[in-house]
Amino acid sequence: MKFRGFTTIVIIVVALMMSFQPSYAHPTPQVIKITQTVTPGFYEGQQVFYYTFFNGTPILSGGTEVAVGQQYRLVDADSQLIQGQSDLIAAGPYDKGYSDLREIIEITVPDDYEVNSITSVEDLLAQNWPQNPTGKLHNSPIVRTGTQLQGHDYDPLSIWINGEEHQAFDFGETPAQSAPIWVLITGYDATGSAVRLPGQAGPIIRQLQSDPGYSDFWRVYFVTVPEDTVPNSLRSYEQIIASGYPIEASENVINCPVIRAENMAIGYLNDAAYYITRIDRPDLPLDENLPPIYTYVYDDGVPLPDTPWVLSVGEGDDGYTGFCMRTHVLLASGYHTSETALLNDPNANLQPVGVVSTCAILMLKN
Quick one: 240 and 279 in the same domain? Predict the structure, then answer.
């Protein structure tokens, strides 16, 4: 992957996060919990959030495409997964042949295969067992063991790399082409690195998962704006084009799976406002151990407009999992922004709904 300097990448992702590249030669025996944070951006004027991964995925055709690796998945004669068996890849991040984007290749193993008895691609291919390239391209970045995703319930995967077990997240299928992302800058410094527009809340994208041309892999376009540009006055592709400001395509491509904007809500925890995921999950079984999330409603259960969601727990609190049980608030003396004030309101009529909802905190609302 060709970079225009590490500083440029930091600019692109709005001073995103700590570097988290794992060491493959000396795995740490003690698992350290690391949170992969979200980055804000804009889509059609609305704020969206996404993750960013830097693993050295090679680019092709000047940045319009990304290289595709291979991920081997073991199945039985009926094409059923071998339970407990981890997938295998041949290289780790920044190694030759590595890519976050990998085609799933199914390997049919004999009936007497012992689970995880083969832990390297070299040994696997030496067996000459039948192969079935599925054509399915999955975005599965390798991360340091112990990494968790801020604001999402993706479960990590275990993947074998040359006999060592590592952790990855599978964000599903995405094409090998890149999609554009526009970053507002005021110019370049003496080192050739782009200088981001101060105060701009994030870059601008044009596609979400349901839009034609979407990809998790974003090719960076720099938009040079005047230094006196009002931050966040440009929030959509249409505004960029209408502005007439010069646009320069780069060969920087970053892996940025997006969390969709329409799943966002404002939730309050102890009077502080956060961006949270807010998706009802009636498919999940009810769990009395899940904490409540409160929402103000009319008598018929329709949410009152412009009223807060109130969280009972946050990251680091006992019971926090990113899931809650919805509870309606029918009457109250006022609209509270903390559970304590709500529970102490004698007029508050609380009614559990019996529906599991996501309530994962993404980031503090500015």
Answer: no
